[in-house]
Design a protein that fits this description.
Layout: H1 2-17, H2 19-57, E1 61-66, H3 81-86, E2 91-100, E3 105-106, H4 112-115, E4 122-125, H5 129-133, E5 137-140, H6 145-150, E6 154-158, H7 159-164, E7 174-177, E8 180-188, E9 201-204, H8 205-213, E10 223-228, H9 233-245, E11 252-256, H10 257-300, H11 302-310, H12 315-352, H13 362-387, H14 390-396
Helix pairs in contact: 1-12, 2-10, 2-12, 2-13, 10-13, 11-14, 12-13
């Protein structure tokens, strides 16, 4: 025990006496562990945030849209697509939209040149869309039946577009759609399952037909959103293709919206593997740096090694001293790497607004990995130092 205590004291003294060299030794395991911790923690946090969003939004939203293989450049669903959708027994509620093309949106006439080349989605929507999407309004109201029946030029804008247009909650404001003034009556909150809606403008179906489609009566939608019974998403998606199409010539494609978030989580997992691989590469390169710096240290400290060998210290004791230095470097570098990685996760989570997730096994695993790499890297210098003879140290010194 006394021997180990003396060796530990000598190892710590050696590291403390050469601060610049010790810092160089610490950088390898510290950067490698930090990269691995940050990669795993950030992707787990992103995935945890996605899971929380799916839990809030539900997995039972199905989208049905007109496929483009039939129906030309602007394919649409049948005019009575909503009624057909409600015939599916697993559908609880449904909303229809019609995405309009070639409508230039500007906050005012003078801004036409600025926004002429910026595509802002214009969507004809019915009164049930927020209820089906289960999203609230930031301010104001949604399109109501009066707007639909009278063809009023009322508009609801997405949250991001409201910020871009510097819209203030409750402000009496108009925006121009294709040169026509529309009154902004509300701002829709963020739609996690349909991010494009955050920068969109929503107007009543009838108004869209009168102003942009030159269509009277019922306007055909090109997309439906249906809320299904829990657990019946796949069954409903398959049934909607048949119910909406009814043997007609137009194709209908369906998508379970929560699957898009799950695919995003999978892509994050692939990114995690890439960054973890880079972290492992960094820590391996750091290990090579440890071996190189410690090998040079053996030459620089040859006089010290010679004196200790002359005093009777065995090769095992000399080797143990250098291995203990490598272990200390691994422990300190691992702890600093874990702290740096956790700090990176906290910053990333704060900037992205995610849920903080850190697996409990990452902290000890990071420190253990740093110690392992440091010990492996320190084996060669320790062996080299142990093989030095007292007379040989005079030549090296």
């Amino acid at each position: 025990m006394n021997e180990f205590r003396d060796l530990a004291r000598v190892a710590l003294t050696g590291l403390a006496a050469r601060k610049a060299r010790t810092l160089l030794l610490l950088l390898g395991p510290m950067i490698g562990v930090a990269a691995i911790i940050a990669a795993v923690g950030l992707t787990d946090s992103a995935k945890g945030d996605l899971k929380a969003k799916v839990a809030d939004l539900g997995t039972n939203l199905v989208e049905a849209s007109a496929a483009s293989s039939f129906g030309g450049e602007d394919p649409t669903l049948p005019e009575d697509a909503v009624k057909r959708t409600l015939t599916v027994r697993t559908v609880e509620k449904v909303a229809a939209v019609r995405q309009l093309a070639n409508v230039v949106v500007t906050p005012y006439t003078e801004a036409l040149e600025q926004f002429d080349t910026v595509p802002i989605p214009v969507v004809a929507a019915d009164s049930t869309l927020p209820d089906v999407l289960e999203v609230e309004l930031v301010s104001g109201r949604w399109i109501d039946r009066f707007d639909e029946e009278t063809g009023a030029r009322s508009a609801v804008i997405g949250q991001s577009l409201a910020r871009e247009f510097s819209y203030l909650p409750g402000e009496n404001r108009t925006i121009e759609l294709g040169g026509l003034a529309y009154t902004v009556v509300g701002v829709l909150s963020r739609v996690e399952l349909e991010p494009g809606f955050d920068t969109a403008v929503f107007i009543p179906f009838r108004t869209a037909g009168d102003d942009f489609l030159n269509e009277d009566g019922i306007i055909a939608p090109n997309k439906l959103y249906a809320r299904t019974a829990e657990g019946a998403e796949r069954e409903t998606a398959d049934a909607l293709v048949v119910a909406v199409n009814l043997g007609g010539p137009d194709e209908v494609s369906t998508e379970i919206k929560s699957e898009a978030l799950e695919l995003a989580a999978e892509s994050d997992r692939q990114l995690q593997l890439i960054v973890v691989s880079m972290g492992l590469l960094a820590i391996i390169v750091g290990g090579l740096g440890i071996a190189n710096v410690m090998s040079i240290s053996v030459i620089q400290r040859s006089a010290e090694i010679g004196i200790r060998r002359a005093l009777g210290h065995t090769r095992r004791i000399i080797a143990m001293q250098f291995l203990l230095e490598a272990i200390v470097v691994g422990i300190i570098g691992g702890i600093m790497g874990v702290l740096l990685g956790v700090l990176a996760i906290l910053v990333g989570v704060w900037l992205a607004g995610w849920v903080f997730v850190l697996a409990a096994w990452l902290v000890p695993a990071g420190v253990l990995l740093a110690i392992t790499i440091s010990v492996v890297a320190g084996l060669f210098p320790a062996t080299r130092a142990a093989r030095l003879e007292p007379l040989e140290t005079l030549r090296l010194g």
